[in-house]
Amino acid sequence: MEPFPVQVVRYPHPTLRHLSKPLKRVDTELRKTISEMLEVMYVEDGVGLAANQVDLPYRLCVINTTGDPQCKEMEYVFINPVITRRQGTAEAEEGCLSLPGIHGHVRRAEKVVVSAYNLKGEEMHLQLDGLFARAIQHECDHLEGVLFVDRLSDPGKLAVRDKMEELERALTDERRRGVVPDDQQVAQRLAELESLRT
Ligand code: ZN
After folding, report:
1. pLDDT tens for residues 80-90?
2. DSSP character string of the chain
3. Which of 13, 30, 56, 159 could form a disulfide with 51 if both were Cys (CB 3.0 to 4.6 A apart)?
4. pLDDT value for 4
């Protein structure tokens, strides 16, 4: 199988802590990247993916709560999403493609209103609940550099600590082997990409 042009970065990759910048333009190259993000999300059995999970500094995410690539009517691209209203609370288990093998219960708003642009440049205002509301809150957190594990209770954090340390060791090892660039190189690349479109 051909390697994917975009790859999901894993905790504790520094881009996951990067504060995403609003997009000023969406060009052909970025459209291609967005379709690759959707492809990777489906292949890895995710229901959402934020741009910084594929090492991009943009305020952008994709969601399909069915996880089914055939279900196009549930496939959403959110450009510059902003959650404008939150209502109620709900707790449920979450996972993340950037934290493989880690799950935990996260308390979030039960219903949200989100404003964003779609790929056609049209403004969307969506009222969401259930898994879709949870997914957009999880993805918007990513864009702020926040991971779902940051929102776990203290016992919840303790329960995932070993697995997180395993991921930390894996990244250290990948950097030693030169597979993942160092912090300075990552920051420089993000700055170049920001100057291009934000
Ligand atoms: Zn995630």
Report:
1. 999 999 999 99
2. -PPPSS----TT-GGGGS--B--S---HHHHHHHHHHHHHHHHTT-SEEEGGGGT--BSEEEE-TT--TT-GGG-EEEEEEEEEEEEEEEEEEE--TTSTT--EEEEEEEEEEEEEE-TTS-EEEEEEEHHHHHHHHHHHHHHTT--GGGGS-HHHHHHHHHHHHHHHHHHHHHHHTTSS--HHHHHHHHHHHHHHH-
3. 56
4. 55
